[in-house]
Structure formats: structure tokens, C-alpha cells
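ok so i was messing around last nite and threw this chain in just to see what happens. nothing serious, just curious
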Amino acid sequence: MRLRLASSVLVTAFLAVACTGGGGGSSSARLSAGAGVEVATGGGTYRSVDGNRTLRAGDRVKVDSGKAIVRLNSDRQLELRSGSELELGAAAGGTTLTLSLVAGDLLVTAPGDADPLSVTVADSEVSVAGGSARLSRGSAATVASYNAAMTVTSAGRSLQVTARRQVAVPAAGLLPGKPSPIIFKAGDSWDQRFLGDAIDLGNQLVARSRGFTAQLGPGEGRSAGFYRQILPALENEPAFDVASLGPDRSPGEELVGLAITVQGNHGAFADRLASVFTFHDDGAAWGLVALDQGVSRAPLLSRVDEAIGRGPLSLAEAPPAVAAPPAGSSASTPAPAAALPSNEGTIVTPTPSVSAPAPDATTGAGPLNTGAPLVDNTVNSLVDVLTGLLGGLGRH
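result:
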């Protein structure tokens, strides 16, 4: 019995050593695959596989349909999908696997307490740590971080890539000056997994931004005082002034960006303000900007909806009241109507003030105020006045 127990311990220890190389590397990996996945062992021909199997240096994995997962030590893993092809090699000494993306896409995950995971993509070496990243090999090597810290090295040059940013390397050594915002697709399963809520939030913020801009007239929404009125939190920010506003940004863009800034807490107000608009101006959707600032959906949408509720629905001034008939005049003769305000030669009808509906307590999203014109009895009353006035003139 003791001999059998000792043998079991030795076998377990041997397997642990066989699966772990120096520096936290791995000399083997475990493949979980379904239908549509093929493996070429030791440089041989591809054969269909199904289920679990061990991969070693010299093996290649190709996914024609479905997906496959390659698990390494320390909970690090690679996920392949249709069109992906991965090659496993051996580092010097043969104790650690090397990983190369031959074609398609690869989702790399390395937990924060594990060693970084390195993958070669074309002429670039990508190190992923503390999260997940999407690597792609097409006409260029594209490296996109969902929430990981990455280092991309190509032809002796290196670039750091942080969460929600990406770089494309079209040829060896051609690294950009800085990463750009991550490009996502609403229908991509990986993008939905990591950015789905940010994508949806961004769509809601864009709708509110456009609606708010549409309800303002020319020249409105261009002063610091205007935004202090609709976003009271700005009253406590002495760093906010007219220089904080972008001359080329729409009022709706200003509103959403400022709402994210006041809601965030990463650094001083001026630093947050610069970070928010720089990231958005570089091409980041508003949902990504909010995620980047650690701002939650419900409070942000509530703040934006409250600000929209404080803004004007129409800049047209109501016309003065019609003067009462002079004493002794015939009641059938209407008094002259006061001049109506005009906008570029057209009659402007007054629009009643409407308060924004309260946001939903669960999502924080209230009905969108698009600034569309409202039709009510005010228009009908004005038509009656004009009809009477024209009728009186005809009788004269």
C-alpha cells in the first residue's frame, strides 16, 4: 500500500514538471476542441480531432468552424475561432513552448497573478498580462487589448498598449507613435463578451447627444455658464471655463463628455477632462470613454437625462398677447395683432416648456428627449387669431 502511494506521488510530481518549464513557461498544452477542428502533429498532415488532447512543440491547430481552447499552466489560455491557425514551437532548451499565430484571430487571456503570455504575430512579439486581448493576423498584425496590459515588440522597437486600445503593425518595425482606441464590431462574439455593455451605453449616449443638439438654436451651448446651469456639479470645478469647451464640438458632445468627466474620479478635474475628450477625439465611442474612466451606466445616464431636462426645448420667444379692442370700438372688428417674432423670415410658434421624464430606477435611462417640435393647442390658437385678422381686413 505504501509502495503504491509513493508511486502515485512520483507520477503526479513527474506530470507537474512535464507541464511546467522554466520562467513559468509550459512544455505542453491541453486542447479542448469540437467538430471543425484539426491538428497536425509534429509537422504532419492535419487530422480532425474532437474532445481533449495534449499538444506539444511542433503541433499545429486549425479551426475550420466552431472554436477551440488551448489551456496552459496558471490558468492562461488561448481561444481560437473559425479561420484561426496556431503553431506551437519550443524555445531554447525545449522546456518552454513558443506560440505563433499563423492565421486568423486569437483571444489571449493571462490572469493578473500569472506570468505574461507571449505570442508571435507575423514579425511582432506580443506579451499579454493581467487580462484578455484579441490578436489578429491579416494584411497587418493587429493587437487589441480588452483589459490587458501589453507590450508589442517589432524589429527592435516596442510600444505599450493599455486597456481598450490597439495597434496595427503592417510590416516589421512599423509601429505607430501611440495606440489608438480599440475598434469593435457589434456582432463580434469576443467584442460582445468584453465590451457589450459599453457598446450599448455608447449607442444610448449618441442618441441623447444628437437629440440635445437638435433642440438648441445657433449659438446656444457655447458658454461655460450654460453647462454650469444644466450640470450643477460644474459649479464646484474652478478649472472649468470657456477654454474647456471645444469650438468644433456639438453641444451634445460637450454635454456627454462633461457628464463623464464630473462622474469620474481618476485624477483631477482638468486631467479627466483632457483624457475624456482626447480619447473621444481619437475615435473612441462614448461607451468606451465611460468604461475607460470607470463611470457606471445608470448614474451617467441619469445625469445626462437630468441635464437635458434643464435645457431649453425651444429658443423661440412667445409672441406678445393680442391687444384688447379700444373702448367704444365694434366688438366685431378685431384689434390689430402684435408683430410675431420671426426666424429668417418664417413665423415661429411658441413651444411650451416640458420637463424631462424621470429616469428608470433600474437602468437610469429615461425616454429620449429628441427636441422634436410639439403640436398642441398653441398652434391652433394662433391660427384662429390670424383667420380673424384676415377676415376683418377683407370686410374693410
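not much to say yet. The CA atoms of residues 147 and 379 lie 54 Å apart.
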